[in-house]
Specification:
It is built from twelve helices and twelve strands. By secondary structure, the chain is of the alpha/beta class. Helix 8 (175-188) packs parallel to helix 9. The longest helix has 17 residues, at 307-323. The radius of gyration is 27 Å and the shape is elongated.
């Protein structure tokens, strides 16, 4: 390293090719070629460049390099919420498949807002991603920002909350069947009046789960009562309000199938507030099976998704679209019902007093 005596590392966190080139008095392209062992650069210069790069702890920027090569090899992801275990697990599946195929990922969040989702698409396009994986926000009813990707020849795959399934590939859970199975479980466990606490009606995922709920009622010869179906936004406060509305009915439900765990936890809070016992007075099932499901009291019965597998499937589907455009298809990933205390009516006729939870 004697040749490097007198070199002062720039006071910056990331060392760039430009920094190395400036210190050595050569062009950026010369440094780049030297680091890649190009025959165009003599052995002495290659050695000087590599020595300085090691001394300054230079690490290549994969995004910058991909732009130089005009092959981004970057996939963009849009999720409604980054912090939940549900989406982070899907992202893990996506990322692992991407890395195996030498792709990097950029993660963005719509925060459940349509306008923010539009900005996410614009940002990812500006970053020159090769493809986009997206889960719709609850507010989205206009899909023009996604349709514009076709004109730019950027492949798109939807997952979980999807739309335009006739023209855009997608990966979903078995929404209708899982809701049917969950509702049947509640009825088989002794419940007579099962309510559905859902999300925004325009979302296909809400429609499908509601359809599964209705199908189960019909299987058991029970009427479909509009008062027992509450579909608003999938937020904690909306969940509490919706549950309160159900419990205030002249004939309240003795079981609730909630669209997701956020709504289920909100319902649990409201049930306890009404001094009712779970599951003796009212049974409860949630969706997505967040980690909290095992830790609340009583433990929440929930429809468990194969989230990591969903991530793998949608990334593989997108990579196929990048290599060769195929006809749009939908992959359905099975779920299973994780039965816990909140739905075991026949096994726990006494219930758990709200004063103890």
């Amino acid at each position: 390293m004697s040749d490097l005596i007198g070199f002062v590392m720039p006071k910056k966190r990331h060392i760039s090719l430009k920094d190395l080139a400036k210190e050595l008095g050569v062009s950026v392209s010369t440094v780049s070629r030297a680091l890649n062992d190009s025959y165009e650069i003599g052995p002495e210069m290659r050695e000087r460049v590599k020595a300085l790069a090691e001394e300054w702890n230079y690490r290549p920027n994969p995004f910058a390099l991909s732009l130089l090569k005009n092959t981004p090899r970057i996939i963009g992801i849009i999720v409604p919420d980054i912090v939940t275990h549900f989406y982070s697990s899907i992202i893990s599946g996506i990322n692992d498949v991407a890395r195996k195929n030498e792709y990097s990922v950029i993660i963005t969040s719509s925060y459940e807002q349509y306008e923010q989702e539009v900005h996410c698409v614009e940002d990812l396009v500006n970053m020159r991603v090769e493809g986009i994986l997206a889960c719709l926000s609850q507010e989205t009813t206009d899909y023009a920002h996604f349709l514009s990707l076709e004109d730019m020849d950027i492949p798109l795959v939807f997952f979980d909350r999807v739309c335009l399934t006739n023209t855009i590939p997608s990966v979903v859970a078995d929404n209708k069947e899982s809701a049917r199975v969950a509702t049947c479980h509640l009825l088989e466990s002794g419940s007579k009046r099962v309510a559905f606490l859902g999300g925004s009606d325009h979302l296909a995922i809400v429609q499908q789960r509601r359809d599964g709920y209705v199908e189960a009622l019909k299987e058991y010869g029970l009427p479909v009562e509009d008062d027992l179906i509450v579909c608003k936004k999938m937020t904690y406060e909306e969940g509490r309000e919706g549950c309160n509305r159900l419990l205030s009915l002249p004939e309240p439900p003795d079981a609730i199938l909630a669209m997701n765990d956020t709504l289920a936890f909100a319902a649990m809070k409201e049930i306890k507030k009404h001094q009712l016992c779970i599951p003796a007075d009212i049974a409860l099932i949630g969706y997505t099976d967040e980690l909290h499901s095992n830790y609340v009291e009583p433990a929440l019965t929930a429809v468990t998704h194969q989230t990591y597998k969903m991530g793998e499937e949608c990334c593989n589907l997108l990579l196929k679209q990048i290599k060769k455009r195929e006809k749009p298809r939908q992959i359905v990933v099975p779920t299973h019902l994780s039965v816990r205390e909140t739905s075991r009516k026949n096994m726990n006729t006494v219930g758990i007093p709200s004063s103890l939870v």
